[in-house]
Design brief:
79% of the residues lie in helices and 1% in strands. β1 (26-27) and β2 (30-31) form a beta hairpin. With 361 residues, it is mainly alpha-helical. α4 packs across α9 (217-239). It has helices spanning 10-19, 37-62, 72-94, 103-123, 129-137, 140-151, 157-180, 186-213, 217-239, 242-251, 254-280, 282-303, 310-329, 332-360; strands spanning 26-27, 30-31. It contains 14 helices and 2 strands. It has a two-stranded antiparallel sheet. The longest helix is centred in the C-terminal third of the chain and has 29 residues, at 332-360.
Amino acid sequence: MDVKIGIENDSRNIKSNRRNSEKALHVLYYDISDYSSTNQFLICCAGVLVFYLIYGYLQELIFTVEGFKPYGWYLTLVQFAFYSVFGFAECGLNGDTKRHIPLQTYMLLALLTLGTMGFSNSSLGYLNYPTQVIFKCCKLIPCLIGSILIQQKKYGLLDYVAAAALSLGLTLFTLADSQLSPNFDIIGVVMISCALVCDAVIGNVQEKSMRAHGASNTEVVLYSYSIGFVYLLVTMVLTGALWPGLSYCSQHPVIYIYALLFSISGYLGIQIVLTLVQTCGALVAVTVTTCRKAVTIILSFLFFAKPFTFQYVWSGLLILLGIYLNVLSKNKSLMHNLSRHVWQIIAPYHHNRRTFVASSV
């Protein structure tokens, strides 16, 4: 389950957090308000890494079960059912029972959420897990296009350089995977690309809707996944795709255990990411989740046997550069501080060089 993090107003978010510092701060209903800011950060980072690494491991593990690869959409149906139950329970615990966003908007959000999660899960039947994660790291590209078309936003040169680095890195990684991996299929590339397009649109629609109506994240999760569950259930019944998945999983009930743990880890992970945004700002949250994806890829190569080439490393570094440039462009104070530190490092050498040249003359 992906969390949408906007970092364009990060400094404003941090100021707002400071003003609201008196409010209780929880990680999975455990109060961490009395901890130092450093300890709050470390607790959130540990939670994000633990739950999302479990999430990634279980997602890849499910698709290594013999014969499961054709049933990615059935996994999505089960996942949506669990998320709907979790969202309903959390809304009840928080007393958040009133709907704020119009139902028509939720119907669109549910369709986009279904596309994002369904195509992402199903793509693993045709791609290596690291390739899928690399594609998901590059969501900046469709998000940039989507925000230009939907919200008429304008971007600076650094954003376009970041998009170019991501595109080049993604191309090189995909080419390496197509040459080495016996599990590579262009259908998987199409599927994960469709997931990214849906992800780009859903991020912008969510941002506009939540800002306009003041809805909570729990409300958005509940309605998006419950309506999406109904969409997918009806579609699978009408197309006959429900019964093969149901029959397969009845013969392999371990899939339901994996799916439950997979859904729990994803749902808890997103709650901790939202707490991390609240405590440290979205810029830090983006950095932590990006590092998590890098660790996920490394663990995938360690736990699940697959071919390896150093072209994966070079293309992965290009993608990390693109992500870093994108984050940098959204935080001008960080750019200013970085430039100042770089100049402090370079200035002594530059001064010594000028002195040496002058003395030589």
